[in-house]
Design goal:
- By secondary structure, the chain is mainly alpha-helical.
- It has one domain: Arc Repressor Mutant, subunit A (Orthogonal Bundle).
- 38% of the residues lie in helices and 9% in strands.
- A three-stranded antiparallel β-sheet has the order 1-2-3.
- A hairpin with a 4-residue loop joins strand 1 and strand 2.
- The longest helix is centred in the last third of the chain and has 14 residues.
- The chain is globular.
């Protein structure tokens, strides 16, 4: 298991290697999608009682760190 932060982990045996929260089967993507849909932190914690408020903030921090990278868009040739 690789630790991206104290709360975000990657394990190829869990959720196909997607970043998860503390090795649980809850992906950072799931939490970010709830937040982007307008769910409050309290609502997410109610739906996932094993999570802590710090887990939600870790997902946001993880997403912000991804935006620090430079990305290049390339055209793909289709056969």
């Amino acid at each position: 298991m690789e630790y991206i932060s104290q709360r975000i982990t990657i394990d190829e045996q869990i959720c196909n290697g997607k970043p998860t929260i503390r090795g649980k089967r809850i992906t950072a993507q799931t939490i970010l999608e709830f937040l982007s849909a307008g769910e409050s932190i309290e609502e997410i914690l109610y739906q996932y009682p094993s999570l802590e408020k710090g887990d939600i903030y870790a997902c946001l921090e993880f997403a912000a760190q991804l935006m620090e990278h430079n990305y290049i868009v390339k055209d793909l040739a289709y056969a």
